[in-house]
Amino acid sequence: MDELQRIAPTVAVDEDLPVDEQLSMLAMLVGRTDELQRQRSAYRSTLERLADQIPDSVRQRVFASIVVASGGLSFHTRANPNPIGQAMRDLELLLSGITENDDLYVGIEASQVLEHGDDADVLLVESRSDHPATVERWSDLRAVRLGNVHEVPTPSGVSYPAAIRAVESLSPFLLGLDRAA
Hints:
It is a single chain. The protein is an alpha/beta fold. It is 43% helix and 15% strand. The chain has helices at residues 2-7, 19-29, 33-51, 56-59, 83-90, 113-117, 142-145, 160-180; strands at 62-69, 72-76, 94-95, 105-108, 122-126, 149-152. β5 (122-126), α7 and β6 (149-152) form a beta-alpha-beta unit. The mean pLDDT is 77.
């Protein structure tokens, strides 16, 4: 941090803070709190429109949002500011038990895939992932056996516009799940 401060003014953001607090702090520092409030309101409106349409049968499923890399899985947790995970949390959808962890990601080695990844009924695979079939025991996971693995576009960045894009990309998928059941 000291080296960065010699180059330019530098601010450290505590990754353990909720995303909303991180964004509020940064907006205050750059004098953009009004813009942040507009973005927050737009996100909440988008979220509420989708939440009102999600059927109970979809709300009863257990979801996990993952990245596939190097033959293993990384699960987004409740603490992760990833836009897809943020939208799923804010929609109050059931998340896999492994996501209760306080770390940003929980990495699962190939040998542990079944032990830790089998409680999800639905897997959301980030579009930037390796092909899931490269993971050992992938085909044994419950969500895979049920045919409930869905690639979702992953907006980059931690921001309300990214979270809005995440909600918009999840909308057709979540509303179509009920019809696919």
